[in-house]
Design brief:
The chain has 448 residues and is an alpha+beta fold. It has 12 helices and 19 strands.
Length: 448
């Protein structure tokens, strides 16, 4: 039976997508839930999984084509995998030495109970447990191929969601079972290598630059990815529609570094995540936003919208471009929760597995150019927000402290703000409030 593979329903905010890579070609076998193609939107990369086992019969859309919801991408012939295998076996020479058959992956019937156990809520299941049941096609494929129970694998994704990295790490650590000595030495590996997690399909990456003789003036033209084009559009819109101005200050991070050094081992042992700098900056930003709510506001026509919640975006650099996942309700998150969520966002951003809803919204943004060595910069506001905090490189410098010169770990801070609604006085005092909170972090714990 032939089945049409169509573009999945795109969110309302996305009109179309670009087909950037095919993972199968006509005549190749494909399994249910195996990724057939990648669709790139201006925010995320979407997978197109196969609905059933079969063989790819026809590809109707070439890579680089812009597609819309419901458009037919390919045709697969269901149940054709076995026939293709039999035909290949029949055509092989009779004198060829016999090879042991590879272990077959678990059948759908055998794998479904384990998947259902993770997907279905039991008793008074929490929303987080329900979220953990959502397995991506690539994760489901690894679980089925290796006969794994997804509920036994530690999940590091948001709200307990299982990621591809979790499964691969589990396979690397899992001790093989069996009674024979030979089985005890064989590592457990996927039946097939998992699909690469890089979010940049090979079809879209620029070709390696060929060697050119000295003095040659070669050029290479590469189209922007959709994400890069969207970033360019939003930056131009922000500069053309907002009155942007930047104010600077510097912060002494001695107290933060001492606090981290004192508790980092205990913190990591207790919470399973490292105590970094970002949680301190998120907490300090929230405290400052409470004092200056206009910095957390946005412009809508002739109105100022004051947001009475604190959804902080944390900019993450990836091979595809800059993305800004949102930490919701940052004001009620603990240091451990902030570090866990930011680390999870960073990893999944580079894997290309962030969900669209995790990239939308936000009332304030933090960007850290210091990880690349930037000493000072002027970040651009992530419209329709009205302000953004720029972190920079920590550098030891001589400072006058109590009338004496001392070497201190210093960082320049920058706040770019929309001068239409935020006055210079408020912007400067907002940045001073962040500085004060970071130089005496115990105040954030006491709420003073």
């Amino acid at each position: 039976m032939s089945t049409e593979i169509r573009v999945p329903q795109l969110p309302e905010s996305i009109a179309d997508a670009t087909l950037v890579a095919w993972h199968k070609q006509p005549g190749e076998a494909i399994r249910r839930d195996e990724n057939l193609a990648d669709l790139e939107t201006d925010k995320v990369v979407l997978e197109v999984p196969a609905p059933a086992n079969g063989v790819v019969r026809e590809i109707r859309v070439q890579s680089g084509t812009v597609v819309t919801s419901g458009q037919v991408l390919a045709i697969i012939e269901e149940g054709g995998a076995a026939a293709a295998t039999s035909a290949a076996a029949a055509s092989s020479p009779a004198a060829a030495p016999a090879r042991p058959a590879p272990a077959r992956p678990a059948t759908d019937a055998a794998a479904k109970p384990a998947l259902a156990a993770r997907s279905a809520p039991q008793g008074a299941a929490t929303d987080g447990a329900k979220e953990a049941g959502k397995l991506s096609p690539s994760v489901r494929r690894l679980v089925e191929e290796n006969h794994l129970d997804p509920t036994s694998i530690p999940a590091s994704g948001r709200a307990g969601r299982l990621t591809k990295s979790d499964v691969v790490d589990y396979l690397g650590r899992k001790a093989p079972t069996g009674d024979t000595a030979g089985a005890a030495e064989a590592p457990v590996v996927p039946a097939e290598p998992p699909a690469p997690a890089t979010p940049v399909p090979a079809a879209r990456a620029p070709a390696p630059r060929p060697l050119t003789p000295p003095g040659a003036r070669a050029e290479q033209r590469v189209p922007m990815t959709r994400l890069r084009a969207r970033i360019a559009q939003r930056l131009l819109e922000a500069q053309s529609t907002q009155a942007l101005l930047t104010t600077f200050n510097e912060v002494d991070l001695t107290a933060v570094q001492q606090l981290r050094a004192r508790y980092k081992e205990r913190f990591e042992k207790e919470h399973g995540v490292k105590l970094g700098f970002m949680s301190f900056f998120v907490k300090a930003s929230v405290e400052a936003l409470r004092k200056f709510p206009v910095v957390n506001a946005s412009v809508d026509g002739n109105d100022i919208v004051y947001h009475e919640y604190y959804d902080v975006g944390v900019a993450v650099s990836t091979d595809r471009g800059l993305v800004v996942p949102i930490v919701r309700d940052a004001d009620i998150r603990s240091f451990a929760a902030l570090e866990t969520e930011v680390a999870d966002y960073a990893r999944r951003a580079r894997e290309g597995s962030l969900a669209l809803e995790e990239l939308t919204g936000g009332t304030f943004t933090i960007t850290n150019g210091g990880v690349f060595g930037s000493l000072m910069s002027t970040p651009i506001v992530n419209a329709p927000q009205s302000a953004i905090l720029g972190m920079h490189k920590i550098q030891e410098r001589p400072m006058v402290v109590g009338g004496e010169v001392a070497v201190r770990p210093m960082m320049y801070l920058a706040v770019t703000y929309d001068h239409r609604i935020i006055d210079g006085r408020e912007a400067v005092q907002f940045l001073v409030a962040i500085k004060d909170a970071l130089e005496d972090p115990s105040r954030m714990l006491l709420g003073i």
